[in-house]
Amino acid sequence: MEFRFPRTCTLFSSVSLYFLLLPFHSFSQISLPPSPAPEAAGLGPLAVFSVLSFGAVGDGVTDDTPALKMAWDTACQAESATLLIPHRYSFMIQSAIFAGPSTNEVCILLSLFIVEKIDGTLMPPDGPDSWPKSNNRRQWLVFYRVNGMSMQGGGLIDGRGEKWWNLPCKPHKGVNGTTLPGPCDSPVAIRFFMSSNLTVQGLKIKNSPQFHFRFDGCRDVHIDSLYIKAPSQSPNTDGIHIENTNNVKIYNSVVSNGDDCVSIGAGCYNVDIRNITCGPSHGISIGSLGIRNTRACVSNITVSDAVVKNSDNGVRIKTWQGGSGSVSKVTFNNIRMENVKNPIIIDQYYCLTKGCPNQTSSLHISDILYANIKGTYDIRSRPLHLACSDTVPCTNLTFSEVELLPAKGNFLLDPFCWNAYGDLRTLTIPPVSCLSEGIPQSIPENYVDQC
Ligand SMILES: *[C@@H]1O[C@H](CO)[C@@H](O)[C@H](O)[C@H]1NC(C)=O
Ligand SMILES: *[C@@H]1O[C@H](CO)[C@@H](O)[C@H](O)[C@H]1NC(C)=O
Ligand SMILES: *[C@@H]1O[C@H](CO)[C@@H](O)[C@H](O)[C@H]1NC(C)=O
Ligand SMILES: *[C@@H]1O[C@H](CO)[C@@H](O)[C@H](O)[C@H]1NC(C)=O
Ligand SMILES: *[C@@H]1O[C@H](CO)[C@@H](O)[C@H](O)[C@H]1NC(C)=O
Ligand SMILES: *[C@@H]1O[C@H](CO)[C@@H](O)[C@H](O)[C@H]1NC(C)=O
Q: Nearest residue CA, atom 2 of ligand 2?
């Protein structure tokens, strides 16, 4: 992976940077940096760096990447700064990496703030043919080694994903609904990499070519009030994906898209998800984990007060055959399901093709609490599907106040369990009589989950 370091950012430590999209008129008097600015949105006195001051045109066609980069680099030299992406303009930005200073004391605030009409917009080139050959096709805007950054406001990020979703390599997009070989990389819209103390708040983002947000190798991440939207048929458009990231709060957000609403990958712990509305989507997922015999550890995840509607899955844990590690201490509490195909699902046989052979090594899934999960399911599949590994059973699955009824029709498929151990704290609807009680005899004696 190649990373470009803005020289200013690596030369200066103790920098604070704010990245802001505000109604232009409230700042029209602001000229070149580093002029101290009025109090921006209650953020205290900040130097404001508008991309317009650096030559950005904002007509949606001109390449404004050099202006944005210059604004970023300049803002990096200030004690604290706001980078402003003003209202009523559309900025076309190429794939770019914004690196912070390498110290931990940096404070960066990216603030997108639009008052009424959503017409101030950040967007990438339109589709793979417009993407410069030399640019990375797997990511669009990357924030690398930034600490204390906040990206907030009500601006719109438009990922212009449609042409990427229609690449012949994407499911059913080839001739006559086939899937053809060929380059398939598509950019994640916003990626935070090896960063900490991040706040992302109030943004609207739509139609990412791939994941909308991806956090990897980050810690102390606070996400609030995001609005994420893509068509239900758009492939791999996960709303918020985290991996190797810990101390995460994801609150008060609304996601409708074509893949997981929130996905939690390997190496995540201490994650609190609250008041999320998902759907249509593929639900809230832990996984997939353990691909190509990798080790994955995920623990202390709480999902509460969520609504999942018209989705393929509700709350899901998915692992590939052959991995190692564990998923433990997960609570799904107070979740309303509306017309969801698999409201509660554990799938330790996750496979995207038909040919994933069973293997003996497996992740261990344990200490999972499903509490107060109520609502309706789509009768085309089972309300509960607990397919645990043959060799390493799931243990200590607890069900309390689970009540799932058919959304329509009354064809009832029974819950499915395979090697699933745990307890029913209350009676459930439908009854989960297939759950094995107590502790399995069959866990391999020397089994260590290595987490
Ligand atoms: C986190 O960032 C905020 C600014 O967004 C800053 O005020 C705060 O001091 C930072 N906290 C730590 C622990 O670095
Ligand atoms: C697509 O389907 C049509 C109608 O079935 C058929 O005539 C045509 O040959 C197919 N094209 C390819 C490339 O398979
Ligand atoms: C839940 O999130 C929605 C969407 O952001 C918000 O409108 C609502 O006020 C939140 N509810 C609570 C109790 O915070
Ligand atoms: C679990 O995560 C929460 C944050 O979501 C944190 O407050 C708590 O301390 C963590 N528990 C443990 C045992 O680390
Ligand atoms: C893998 O194991 C499961 C559970 O024992 C079984 O249902 C499935 O048929 C097996 N798959 C293959 C490909 O052998
Ligand atoms: C089983 O899981 C619950 C949470 O779901 C936890 O409180 C309890 O301590 C676990 N039991 C054991 C024996 O680990």
A: 176
The CB of 31 under 6 Å from ligand 5? The reply is no
Please give the radius of gyration of the chain, using alpha carbons only, rounded to the nearest integer.
23
Range of the domain at 360: 274-451
Q: Is there a domain that residue 266 lies in?
A: no
250, 271 contact by CB (below 8 A):
yes
CB contact at 8 A, 98 and 141: yes
| 247, 250, 277, 307, 402 from 310: Cα distances, Å | 29, 21, 11, 10, 19
Instruction: Please check whether residues 245 and 351 belong to one and the same domain.
Output: no
**For residue 250, which of 238, 232, 259, 233 has the smallest C-alpha distance?**
238
Predicted structure pTM score = 0.89
E strands of 160-226, at which residues?
188-193, 196-201, 204-206, 213-216, 219-224
pLDDT average per 10 residues of sequence, the chain (451 residues): 31 30 31 36 61 92 94 78 82 92 42 39 94 96 88 86 95 85 93 93 94 98 97 97 98 98 98 98 97 96 98 98 96 98 98 90 96 96 96 96 93 90 96 93 71 89
Dump strand ranges (E) for 178-294.
188-193, 196-201, 204-206, 213-216, 219-224, 227-229, 240-243, 246-256, 262-264, 269-278, 284-289
Instruction: Select from 172, 173, 175, 176 the residue to mutate for testing ligand 2; criterion: most ligand atoms less than 8 Å from CB.
Output: 176
CA distance 80 to 71: 13
- Catalytic site includes residue 282: yes
Question: Number of structural domains, the chain?
Answer: 2
Beta pairing class for 227-229 and 204-206: parallel
Atom of ligand 1 nearest to the CA of 150: 5
Q: What length is written for the chain?
A: 451
